[in-house]
Amino acid sequence: MRTLYGGQAVNEALTVAMETDDRVFLAGEGVGVSIHVNPMGPTHGLLERFGDRRVRDTPVSEAAIAGLAVGSATMGLLPVVEIMFFPFVTLASDMLVNHAAKLRYLSGGRTPVPMTVRLKAGIGFQAGCHHSHNLEAWMAHAPGLKLVFPSNPADMKGLLLSAIFHSDPVMVVEDLGLYRMQGEVPEGDARTPLGRAAVVREGADVTVAAYGGAVGMALEAAASLQEDGISVEVVDLRSLVPLDRETLLTSVGRTGRFVMVHEATRFGGLGAEVAAMVAEEAFESLAAPVRRVAAPHAPVPFAPVQERAYKPGPEDVAAAVRSIT
Amino acid sequence: MTPPSGDLRREILRSMILVRVFEDQLTRMVREEHPPPGIQILSTGQEAAVATILALRDDDVIVSNHRSHAHLLARGADPRDLLAEIMGKATGVNRGKSGTLHLIVPEVNVLMTSTVVGAGPPMAAGSAFAQQYRGQDAITVVFFGDGAAAEGSVHEAMNLASVWKLPLLLVCENNLWAGAQPLRVHCAGEGVASRAASYGMSSERVDGNDADTIHDATLRLVSEIRAGEGPALLELATYRMHGHSEQDPQHYVDPGELEEWAQRDPIQRYQERLLAQGICGEAGFEEMWREAESAVNEALAFAEGSPDPPPQGIMEHVWAPDIPMDGSGYPVEREERRGRAEKGEG
Description:
The structure holds 2 protein chains of 2 kinds.
Chain A: E1 3-5, H1 6-20, E2 24-28, H2 46-50, E3 55-57, H3 62-74, E4 78-83, H4 93-100, H5 103-106, E5 116-121, H6 136-140, E6 146-148, H7 153-164, E7 170-175, E8 182-184, E9 198-201, E10 206-210, H8 214-227, E11 232-236, E12 239-241, H9 245-255, E13 258-265, H10 270-281, E14 291-295, H11 304-310, H12 314-323
Parallel strand pairs in A: 2-3, 2-4, 4-5, 5-7, 6-7, 10-11, 10-13, 13-14
Antiparallel strand pairs in A: 1-8, 6-12, 9-11
Helix pairs in contact in A: 1-7, 3-4, 8-12
Chain B: H1 6-30, H2 50-53, E1 61-65, H3 69-75, H4 79-86, E2 110-114, H5 120-133, E3 140-145, H6 152-163, E4 168-174, E5 177-178, E6 181-182, H7 183-186, E7 202-207, H8 211-229, E8 232-237, H9 255-262, H10 266-276, H11 282-304, H12 334-342
Parallel strand pairs in B: 1-2, 1-3, 3-4, 4-8, 7-8
Antiparallel strand pairs in B: 5-6
């Protein structure tokens, strides 16, 4: 199979969706003409290809961008809007949390909101905490919002395609670091189903669950632990809402040990939910306490040395695994 | 100004009377021993806004706000479905999930009603975008209040709608109150319509208690919008005769001010005008009030006779049906249920 960069995989998903269905349009700040010239970028070349009816540069107005998506989706279009950096989602949060998430419910099931929001996220590009802040736990806490967070180019394409053609609002978090990751990506309309985790490495001694860029960390840690004779199973959650409880519990049931990894802050993070669920549902299987690897409860610092220390790494995952094996 | 046809003016009056009778029923119920659940937010005194709705086409789309009854009834929503919803019944138009605050009636193109003040305009811009995208000449009309005019979302929506020339009519019902705050303490400048100029859009500020004037102004702005000239803003200068909700005793309102506005009651004024101009006689008015009372009584009987939704229906309509989810937030899994059964828990 051919390989693509993550950014190209996103670009291909958008291309396939727009070619497949005229209801799909893109909107956001710089999705047409960007200040960045990046031929590997997620929306590069789409304005030229599909024209300004379907690729819409917006004012700097996150509430209006999200409102555009909600309103046009309730009218039957399939909007794909972009929030340039994850922390800016706070400006759009009323539209997402109070409207996109709740309109199906408020209408008694009569008003689906088939919209997709692409959120560009990540820590480690020295932009500070107004550009780096992973808020997926906020999003997951809003009933009615679905949420995916892929870890590789194939899923960046496949989950985005599933999101676009799904009838609930789906938040798709794109880890900026993965735009430059290479991986095999199937051609055409190749969708990754929502609500299905993937066991990306099989192992016998401990289950490490992660999503987004943290999956790479978990795999790196697993490779180094293998040298010490510790066999790690890595589960890529990838779909956070709905979350594939079954795959996770099956894995923990076999290994008896569980470590949860994410780049977002630990306190109140998604790992807290997953760890609690594992403790409730798989207590008899657990041979050791559950561990979490996550960022400290502080904003993302700017100084490069602090930012590196802030972001969890493979060595943190390995240390957590060693502490329970 | 050319007044609407006699038929249309009688229709406007009939619509205002239905709104008044429907809402007076709610006012009475709030004071009864077993009031309807929740708070009741009424448009009493602002009924002339129905003239905006009656200047539209059926395929135009409405986005309403917390003070929605006039918009919905004028649009033709069934009073039975609305009252059952307001009373939290299973037969309500939104199956009891909405109540009075978020009534959504897609069959009459009331796309949504948002109670988050100022949230309507961005979504209405989205609806108008969908109409433009499909090459339709239908438009979207969004109602908001003077309080909402202070929300950033309203300004974001006006800017986007104007830059993109979206077919959107923004209707500000300026009733001079935002909660307990009068206009002079919450709204800078002279009203709301003047703000349209900074976004390069047409606007009109009209007597919001005069249905003919409202109808006329709506037609003018809508014809510009349909011609592709972009959004417009219509400000209806009116007055909130009741409190923010029926639970609000209006202790902060000067009774003299209420008395003054009562003299400008939109229904009374309209009846007097139609009588003077020979459009409708006393017998015609009486028949309209009687019809409205009968419709509301029927709605009340329907709502009172309707069952409550089942408590176990909480999880209905949260998610798309293709991935069933339970109240834990996780998908319902066949495999998982089987596993539980094997452990003797199922």
